[in-house]
Amino acid sequence: MNGVCLRLLVVLVAGCLAVACGSDEAASKGDVAGAVDTLLGLDGAAGVDAALDTALPDGGEVVPTGDAVPDGAQPGDTLTADGAETLDVEAPADADVKHPACYPNCLTPEGYVWVTIPGGSFQMGCTAGDADCNPDELPAHQVTLASFDLLETEVTEAQYLEVMGTNPSGHYNGAAGDDLPVENVTWVAAQAFCEATGGRLPTEAEFEYAARGGQTTRYSCGDDAACLDGIAWYGANSGDQKHAVKTKAANAYGVYDLAGNVWEWCSDWYATYGADAQEDPQGPEAGSDRVYRGGGFAYDAKNQRASFRNAYMPTGDLDYLGFRCARDR
After folding, report:
1. Which of 71, 84, 159, 295 is the most core-located residue (most Cβ within 10 A)?
2. Distances (CA, A) of 1 to 4, 13, 48
């Protein structure tokens, strides 16, 4: 019997005892335990008594409340009576609820903001009419994704330090600071960080879908590279160094720096595309390199395109490669 059923039964029995005795007095825990024992057909009330010790504070009593459990009582409600201890209606066992591996000890570093990316379908890979596409961006193919959450920004140096206790950043060209994206992080360490905060690395498909911001153009801001100055720190405006997050405009989903600043790890092993339509693809089961996406502060406009792909060994680190986390909804 789960906690909520036992507690509701305790209240009902207490009410019945008071009515049967013709009294408004509180039923003691012993009386309730005996009655519950009888109703359940148990031989010995040790199990019930132990449960009641948990359900009732410090040997307290259950006071009959008339209609002991109001119709429509929900988990999280508090049942009270005049002069009575309060009894919280507990949520049912959540065996069907999927918790992250870190639950219930997931960490939430300062400034950690999740943005919901609505599910939908898109053409993944080379944008129609884009002459800059590389062979591994082909063939373009339809992908359908469920809704998911994505961090508003790249993980910062301060956030990484808070969770992992270290800051591996190489600070290329002297760029350093709490609000700057962490870099020089291996895929393995990035995944560990995400898991510690209740998330995971985004799939390659999720990253491209979010980076497109609902658009079908080369960049989330349009097809003309001139629009990049407003949304990305890249080779033409960065001074060859990373910059604080959220200092360029967000895309239509409210997410920052999905083009430019630091490159970002994805969860997938790198492989060539197939032509078949896919639903929530996770990438191949094995490989040698992991995908990273998003362009970077030292790279030209071609590398900032939403379909551009890159990859590196998961145990390697680069002083222009960072990450952000995703999580299921």
Report:
1. 295
2. 8, 16, 10
